[in-house]
Design a protein that fits this description.
81% helix, disordered N terminus
């Protein structure tokens, strides 16, 4: 193990920085999508009742891309999939901009599909982070890569905010921001292509050197078998709940704030603080998860999210929305880092992409469903209905994990 780490120590550091930069660039594009996807589709169609459809298309596309992207990662490596995801995202952003020019819902929807596919593929970078270190350091490694997304938060106030400053949100004002997002995605593709050696190569070398469980020569297990391994169900449940609720609420925030008569610039400020909550403390969270245990972290993160969603029912001011969305991001951070670290620790290098991709698939579809339901609930009953529904969606899994029987401590993990 030590020999393998010494050989790859410099590439590991470089790859970690580059993967973190990929998440930074992805975060910048996604911030735009979160803030204006709902409004873009409503403006191009003129139908207010479909306000949850834009985020749902984006989230469903990311979910549907995650599993095939994960499978492809296991076969050909992490880098081609991450770079390809950015390329698809650049095309998607461009199509959305063209849709705004032509007032074409078909182009806008096609663009959302491409942006969502980019998100689903590039978010698998956290698997690449876990590839390059031994099991006891995986939560920290994942946190290092996720930390890059924190700096994507500055693109809201520094880039997107000025592009919308003093302007009414109309289709023509959305064109330049979407083209700018395409450029950012192309930069992300270039960064991804400089990652070498591929993190999957490092993982296979670590596995070969460590021989942690003596199962190195075994073929990849079926997904059903992997999901039955002790520890995997709880991690999967937490990953599904934390991601689905976080993205479902986050993608409705822009429209909710407009309903409170806040400006589009205010929306970017709140979303930026949400991203700060998601990533600012991730380095501390990663170390904390490794120290206190993943199971406790899964429950703690979901509880923090419950506090956030309950708060959403009472606040209308910018500071109140900022606090609620910050806590939503922080709770997701704790639970999601713990869930990802737990999942990859129960899978071999040629199983991880498939396992994480499958959970991302279901989580993204759940998030899309929650965005649609939340949009309908907000239209019919207001923000309280959204807040109560989101709270139940995180409290129930937290209770299930907390009261579930703990897996036997002697059960060995697959080689990592």
């Amino acid at each position: 193990m030590n020999c393998a780490i010494a050989v790859f120590s410099d590439p590991v550091r470089r790859n970690t920085v580059l993967l973190s930069l990929c998440l930074l660039l992805l975060s910048g594009v996604i911030q735009l999508a979160v803030a204006v996807a709902t409004i873009t589709l409503v403006l191009v169609t003129g139908i207010k009742s479909i306000l949850g459809l834009g985020p749902a298309i984006f989230l469903a596309s990311g979910a549907l891309a995650a599993l095939p992207a994960g499978r492809l990662m296991d076969r050909v490596g992490r880098v081609p999939v991450i770079a390809g995801g950015f390329a698809v995202g650049a095309v998607g952003c461009s199509l959305t901009a063209l849709g705004c020019i032509a007032s074409s819902s078909a182009l806008v929807v096609s663009g959302f599909v491409g942006v969502g596919a980019m998100s689903g593929s590039v978010l698998l970078s956290r698997t690449a982070a876990a590839d390059m270190v031994p099991p006891e350091r995986r939560a920290r490694a994942i946190s290092y890569v996720l930390f890059g997304a924190l700096f994507g938060a500055v693109l809201g106030p520094l880039v997107w905010g000025p592009l919308f400053a003093g302007k009414e949100v109309e289709l023509h004002t959305l064109v330049v921001p979407w083209f700018a997002a395409a450029v950012i995605a192309l930069v992300g593709m270039g960064v991804a292509l400089t990652i070498r050696p591929d993190p999957r190569t490092i993982a296979l070398e670590l596995q070969k050197s460590a021989a942690e469980t003596g199962t190195d020569s075994l073929p990849p297990a079926s997904l059903r078998e992997i999901l039955r391994r002790p520890g995997v169900p709880s991690a999967a449940i937490a990953a599904l709940a934390s991601f689905a609720v976080m993205v479902g609420v986050m993608n409705l925030t822009g429209y909710i704030m407009v309903g409170f008569h806040h400006t589009q610039s205010d929306v970017f400020n709140v979303i930026s603080l949400h991203i700060v909550g998601m990533y600012a403390l991730v380095l501390v969270v990663g170390a904390l998860v490794d120290r206190i245990g993943r199971r406790q972290s899964l429950v703690s993160g979901l509880v923090i999210m419950a506090v956030s969603t309950l708060l959403l029912a009472w606040v209308e001011s910018i500071p109140g929305m900022m606090l609620s969305l910050f806590l939503l991001g922080l709770g997701w951070n704790v639970s999601y880092v713990a869930a990802t670290a737990e999942l990859v620790s129960h899978a071999t290098p040629v199983e991880r992409g498939r396992l994480v991709g499958s959970t991302d698939l279901v989580a993204g579809l759940l998030g899309a469903g929650l965005a649609l339901l939340g949009g309908a609930a907000y239209t019919e009953w207001g923000v309280v209905a959204v807040a109560v529904g989101a709270t139940v969606a995180v409290v129930a899994p937290a209770a299930a994990i907390g009261f579930a029987r703990r897996p036997p401590s002697h059960v060995p993990e697959p080689a990592g």
